[in-house]
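Q: What does the assembled structure look like for these inputs?
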Amino acid sequence: MMHADTAPPGAAAPVFYQTDEEGHHSEGSTMLGFWLYLMSDCLIFATLFATYGVLGRSYAAGPTPKDLFDLPGIAVNTAMLLFSSITYGFAMLEMDRDRIKRTQVWLAITGLFGVAFVALEIREFAHLFHEGAPPWRSAFLSSFYTLVGTHGLHVSMGILWLVVLMVQVRKYGLIVENKRRLMCLSMFWHFLDLIWIGVFTVVYLMGVLE
Amino acid sequence: MSADAHHMAGPVGHGGASAGHGHDPHAQSEGGHGTVQSYMTGFVLSVILTVIPFWLVMGNVLDNSLVTTLVILALGGVQMVVHVVYFLHMSTKSEGGWTFMALIFTITLVVIMLAGSVWVMYHLNHNMMPMDAHDVMNNAR
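A:
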């Protein structure tokens, strides 16, 4: 400590920290920061699950899950998300090997699975509206649309993010920044698949069981 | 103590600039990526753990719906762990253990929030049972 204060005049100013450290350090801490974001997002979904858990049996003499849910359709939806998870994994593996074209192809396939998932969900919602089960029909339906809709909105935003990153990769290649962004989206995408496990188990399968 | 150690690791490891630079992405790729094998393992496990609950419910395999509920909840929990390990590449060591700490903290909060809400609201519903037609008639008399 003392030598810093007693530096002779004319000597270079003592270096307490390296300024170029900042940029470098953020590479490592971005993943941790994004993980913390995912955990907070997880809490949002937990509150929505809790709401559904409390209100999910309040039908107000309206339609019940058994009347509404089409399990084969939900199984197809689930498959779409699962396939998109593995194809995103393949994109990450190609990214590791710095193969731009193959990374882009896998990302595009992932995006198509994502679009298929959102499209099927919109079709399901439209069908429910048609069946006389809009969100304002009962507390069960309000909490159902909020939970499943929030997840669908997350997936839609993920697709938008995916498209933006594909443009970035096309323009700038697989630079360090783009790799970092792709890794963040990878965590986001797999996290959404994880939330969907909770949705199909608690909402759809348990709903039809009762 | 461990926070200090984590913080110190940056500048110290960075002493030799190029060596430190080469090291970090490597550590990251270990923590953030898997191999074809780990992704496929995760995928196959996920498919199995998805097909079983759908089959149980759609095929009405178990007569007891309470047992079926418990089984599909357990399978869902296992599948979440599979995703965290094989797709999110979580381990107790990634990012110096901090992601794992955050995960444990979040799981604790989620369990309290879910179990607490359902428990409290169940009792609230039970104690404040809405009056049905029969009670209303009795009160009116």
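Chain B touches chain A through 53 residues (CB under 8 Å).
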